[in-house]
Amino acid sequence: IDLGNWIFECLAMKKPVILGVKGESEKLIKQGECGITIEPESATEMASAIRLLKEDKQRFNQLAGNGRAFVEESFNRSKLALTFLQLIAGNQKLNVRSARVVESKC
User: Which of 14, 48, 74, 88 has the fewest C-beta atoms under 10 angstroms from its C-beta?
Assistant: First the structure.
């Protein structure tokens, strides 16, 4: 899966994405409701999407807020790392502040 970092950077900066590709990136934008997807290489759709976001500030702000929240919730590196550590630790508990494995009493 090739998700460009630029997508996450834009979303984190509260910038809605206009995306003209198919695949995982398109699914991500639709799932997060954080941008507009268009047909690849469609100059007409690109121009329409740009006009829409320029003229409809409420829509722009909604997509921008959705994008920031989506990145913070779903792609936060600290949260992802902690989840990974918890998977590795199995039935052991993790100390969230230091991300150290501590003994479980289970």
Answer: 88
